[in-house]
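R.M. (postdoc): so does anyone remember the format we settled on? I'll just put the structure tokens first.
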């Protein structure tokens, strides 16, 4: 299932510094070979939080990914994060 692969990429980005460094250098290469749809790959490569969430990634993993991509948490980050997800509803997050 591709959603599992997307969630795994989000988790690895947030938790594995070596993976994060490879991803930041070349996102396409870092996620190549994973069972991701074209839309999932594109959203991950762009770090498009709204699209990643809308595609059904687990909210906790999206949040962890966003914090790591931002370089840490701040009030400014939180305001931006909430604005990016405004209007979206939690869908089926089963993997």
């Amino acid at each position: 299932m591709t959603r599992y692969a997307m969630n795994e990429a989000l988790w690895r980005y947030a938790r594995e510094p070596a993976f994060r460094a490879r991803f930041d250098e070349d996102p396409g290469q870092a996620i190549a070979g994973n069972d991701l749809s074209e839309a999932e790959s594109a959203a991950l490569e762009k770090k498009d939080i709204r699209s990643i969430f809308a595609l059904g990634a687990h909210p906790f993993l999206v949040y962890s990914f966003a914090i790591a991509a931002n370089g840490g948490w701040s009030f400014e980050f939180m305001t931006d994060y909430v604005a990016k997800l405004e209007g979206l509803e939690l869908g089926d997050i089963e993997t």
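R.M.: ...and that's the designed sequence above, right after the tokens. Also worth knowing: The CA atoms of residues 10 and 61 lie 6 Å apart. The mean pLDDT is 93.
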